[in-house]
Design brief:
This protein is an alpha/beta fold. The protein folds into two domains: 65 residues; 62 residues, Chitinase A, domain 3 (Roll). 39% of the residues lie in helices and 24% in strands. The chain is built from three helices and seven strands. The chain has a five-stranded mixed sheet with strand order 5-4-3-7-6. Strands 1-2 form a two-stranded parallel sheet. The longest helix has 30 residues. The radius of gyration is 19 Å and the shape is elongated.
Length: 146
């Protein structure tokens, strides 16, 4: 089966990968500085493994996937939709529904295969769903990035 990823998710993951690789470069410079100062780099090397694993994870999510441009279905949530949801406590969160399931702090990419992803598919503006923690979630806005 061909692995696919939406254009919006690919763009997000590529930007996240670049951000992490920039941070990793800064980490390597700091590591070199510690080494030149005669400091103990053994503890810092543990951090290097974390950086490398994160980069490997992101590259794996992008590897060998065909970019798709989902067809827009008017006013319903589909793969590739960017969604603004509101929890019953008033807190808002932006999500992108995709087949990947990797996200950052500001916008979370939610897999269409996850429980919440399955609940969101096909929903319309104003619809409500119940999260795993029994919190009520209202769909406030739906954006179509394509």
């Amino acid at each position: 089966m061909e692995k696919r990823i939406t254009n919006s998710a690919r763009s997000f993951l590529e930007n996240e990968l670049q951000r992490i690789m920039d941070g990793y470069e800064n980490f390597r410079l700091e590591l070199a500085h510690i080494g030149r100062q005669g400091g103990n780099i053994a503890e810092a090397l543990k951090g290097e493994v974390i950086w490398e694993n994160k980069i490997k994870q992101l590259k794996g999510l992008l590897k060998d996937k065909k970019t798709v441009y989902p067809k827009r279905q008017k006013e319903t949530i589909n793969i590739g939709s960017k969604i603004l949801i509101v929890f019953n406590d008033g807190q808002e969160k932006e999500l992108i529904l995709d087949g990947v399931g990797y996200g950052g702090k500001q916008i979370k990419i939610v897999s269409c295969h996850s429980q919440i992803g399955q609940q969101l598919l096909g929903k319309k503006l104003g619809d409500k769903i119940i999260a795993q923690n029994k919190a009520e979630i209202i769909i406030k806005e739906i954006y179509y990035p394509w």
